[in-house]
Amino acid sequence: MLASLIQPLQLPSPNKDAFGIETQSSRTRSMDKLLHDVESLFDAPLRPRSLHAMSEQLQAEFRTKLQSSNICMLPSFHYALPTGHESGDFVALDVGGSTFRIAIVHLSGKESAREGMDIKRMKSFVIDEPIRDLKGKAFFDWMAARIEEVLGSDKSATVPLSMAMSWSFPIEQTSTRSGSILTMGKGFRATHGVEGQDLYELLMDSCKQRNLQVQLQAIINDSSATLLSQAYRDPSTRLSLILGTGMNSAIYLPVSALSQDKYGSRSEDWHASAKDVLVNTELSMFGKDVLPASRWDQYLNATHHMPDFQPLEYRVSGRYLGELVRLILIEAIETADLFSGMMPAKLQEPYSLDTGTIAVFESDSTSTLCKAAIAFASAHPLPAGRMPSTRDLYFVKQVSRLVSGRAAALVATAVHALWSLQHSLVASPKTVDTQLAQQPRTHATVACNGTVMEKYPGFRSRCQNHLDELAIMSGQSRGAISIEMAPESSVFGAAVAAASESEV
């Protein structure tokens, strides 16, 4: 359980009195009491049996949403996983909120060097305010100009290069390579005058005006790209997890697992070809009535501009880990004399405590936590230039460990629930002829990406430890579900999507 993974921190000894006898001030007792309160709320609910029961409840929620929801458990148009033998050069586009990345990716088969995936060249372009202000066709003309810049001599190839795009914005997809563009948010004005038009046509028209020899084959989201990129390397990959500022997951399921209403008006050819389908779970939206909630979780949710919308994300993603710690620290300052009761001015601002800052606390192995002290003081200086005491710093470190430790346990539980759902659906007689059923089920790989999983100290290993415990409780062996990082998954996944669709 979590307590076995997080060794309790011993706060430095309080001062000794004139006779050399250690004494505890009321401040020390109060801080210890609050720390015990945090531990009971964040650690106690995470015993293995409790997590396993949570997994079963999440599975029930997944099954309900597979049949009824129009905002989660959404089937894509992608029904074929890569064989790992696809080869060639592909143009991969990764369109995010602040960066547009373009890569020429060479696939040579997983038996070759570098696992068969290599970036021949790649360039990133900042999407700043002037670019976000581009309206309609002007934005796609800008994209095409950047593609031309990266293609270089390849732009006039005799055979068009297959291209795929990881699109980090809303879209009502109508095929593997087309969909109606929806309001993008994040300050973008690109949909002005073209909202509802086909994203494929908008981009390809701009590319054709520049005589670019490219053909858009696929549009995917980041969770699907992560799954596809790892599946190219490892055929046991059937799940993906994105855990950074936000979170999401994709899963490969039998078509029959979802209600027919979910598929809309797809062609008979699609239904004839598709036995399994890549599903965007929108995992962040699950768990409202399942996940443990402390008073700080309840406050975060109540003050959020979209309360209850993404209950799992509010507990585990990079945007919220620092915020939960901030709320606890404010209570500690006001009631337990943390920082001698002095409130850093900026700490009162919502979301001002960055998750990167609490990560420094967890990675600081010095006895005085000097690195953490510098990081915290630079972002949240105390009044009059005071510095936090070592006891204060250790309190912040323990709170950070409890918050991130609970997040790791809940992420593992959600992944286990998805794996269990998939395992049960694949075992169903209705799916015996699917590609899924033909794969051995003794081991499953979860393809991961995102800064929390990649960079937060010890997060991935804690997730894996919980997954091992849950797998054993499910009658499987330790390591039956393994987390594997999928580097550069947006561009590699887009390239794999283009390759897969080119061969269909």
UniProtKB/TrEMBL annotation:
Enzyme class: transferase
Keywords, sorted A to Z: ATP-binding, Glycolysis, Kinase, Nucleotide-binding, Transferase
Domain Hexokinase C-terminal: residue ranges: 239-499
The protein's Enzyme Commission number: 2.7.1.-
GO CC entries: cytosol; mitochondrion
GO molecular function (one): glucokinase activity
Pfam entry (one): Hexokinase_2
Family membership: Belongs to the hexokinase family.
Entry protein name: Phosphotransferase
Annotated source species: Aureobasidium namibiae CBS 147.97
The organism's taxonomic lineage, starting at the top: Eukaryota, Fungi, Dikarya, Ascomycota, Pezizomycotina
